[in-house]
DNA sequence: CATTTGCAAGAGCAGTGCTCTCGATATGGC
DNA sequence: GCCATATCGAGAGCACTGCTCTTGCAAATG
């Protein structure tokens, strides 16, 4: 390993360290991440951080990508360990919810309102689609197995927009089922977000997991999963 | 009208003016509302604003309450002008979505992630329930009319939590239907939020209204509305 | 050994929320 | 009408933020 590679490795380690501290700050302090505070925690000058991230937004982007990957990982692993498509759906949903409860501010970063003045760069769109692709794969598995009841084809102009989308990502799924899967995905994300963001306070407080499971099954049914 | 009342009226007008400018800033600048910038726009010192709002959070709270009221108003008016429960549901949903598209940052304020370090005070819980109450009333109307198909009763611990909630707000609805209405509400809010927050980019872009209508009908079906 | 490159530190700018003090003005009791 | 009181606006100031620029040091390169 040449010296240049060593330099690059040290740099990568430093970058990871900054992200780690930033995540810790995000978890404890809340969403208004302070680059200076991160630098203080690392015992370095704030200006030194700019050697690794050109701006606070760029650091946030890195955290967003990591968050998409983290929730995607947990959901994929949970789904892989389950049996039937419905069980995979439930496992992935509960895994995502538990990750969100454990990392509320990171969840808010990706599925909450965009950060003030922050425009998501292109680097984030690919990891963002990961969970939706997973859900599509689960539905596709059920569809191939023939357990999805036949549905009326889609009507409406948006159906035409879904067709090329379907061809690219879910070549073996009818557009109608894609639309239903997206809708179910939004439903699950909404259920997680609105529990997390406090819209359930003064309502269900004890058995939130049970209520989420109820919604998760409703979404699964919408996406065509039975059993 | 006594002088004291006049003073109070002037104070109320000033308070409204500050809120109006703050909303304008929210609409143009984004979510990171600057109290100083608002003060500058009003031609007054930043410290003077603190005579009317003890903190930036308090101003935000006022804006949140106004936003809940605004979206509640539009939804209620739209529903009132419609005929059947399903039509009311659709009208309320589309009205909420259009309001959200017209006031994205205000929508993010109430249905997005909570603002950094901001804890919603009790003043906001009552206006927050307004839309959900409207939807509950629509479903209750359909239920009384007998057009809602019978469903299995709820099982699970969260069902017990819904019972007192149901007794308070929807005395004539079975808990199962309440849970379904809440789930449908989350689904609709999620559909609006994730369209607004860009999760639909690179997907459906032309006929977003059509796709929302599709989801809105799915949610209505979940809540028991047919027709 | 000399030079280029990468990195960290510090000062500094413009902006923020918020507090405090100090005058000006208006209100209410006598 | 006069004076005590309450209310309000302005300004200075504190601690903080993101970000830039310059300076100096250390390591890799020739």
UniProtKB/TrEMBL annotation, chains A, B:
The keyword DNA-binding applies. The keyword Transcription regulation applies. It holds the Pfam family TetR_N. Keywords: DNA-binding, Transcription, Transcription regulation. Residues 34-53 bind DNA. It comes from the Bacteria. Gene3D superfamilies: Tetracycline Repressor, domain 2. Residues 12-71 form the HTH tetR-type domain. This is WHG domain-containing protein.
């Amino acid at each position: 390993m040449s010296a240049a590679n060593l330099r690059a490795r040290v740099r990568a380690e430093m970058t990871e360290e900054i992200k780690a501290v930033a995540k810790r700050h995000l978890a404890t302090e809340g969403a208004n991440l302070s680059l200076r505070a991160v630098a203080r925690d690392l015992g370095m000058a704030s200006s030194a951080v700019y050697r690794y991230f050109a701006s606070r937004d760029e650091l946030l982007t890195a955290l967003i990508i990591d968050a998409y990957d983290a929730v995607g990982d947990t959901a994929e692993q949970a789904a892989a360990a389950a049996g039937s498509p419905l069980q995979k759906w439930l496992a992935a949903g509960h895994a995502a919810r538990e990750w969100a409860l454990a990392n509320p501010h990171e969840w808010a970063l990706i599925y909450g309102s965009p950060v003030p003045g922050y425009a998501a760069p292109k680097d984030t769109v690919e990891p963002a689609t990961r969970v939706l692709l997973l859900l599509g794969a689960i539905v596709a598995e059920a569809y191939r197995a023939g357990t999805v009841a036949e549905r009326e084809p889609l009507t409406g102009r948006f159906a035409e927009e879904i067709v090329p989308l379907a061809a690219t990502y879910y070549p073996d799924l009818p557009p109608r089922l894609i639309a239903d899967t997206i809708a179910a995905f939004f439903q699950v994300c909404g259920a997680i977000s609105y529990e997390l963001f406090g819209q359930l306070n003064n309502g269900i407080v004890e058995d939130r997991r049970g209520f989420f499971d109820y919604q998760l099954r409703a979404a699964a049914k919408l996406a065509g999963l039975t059993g």
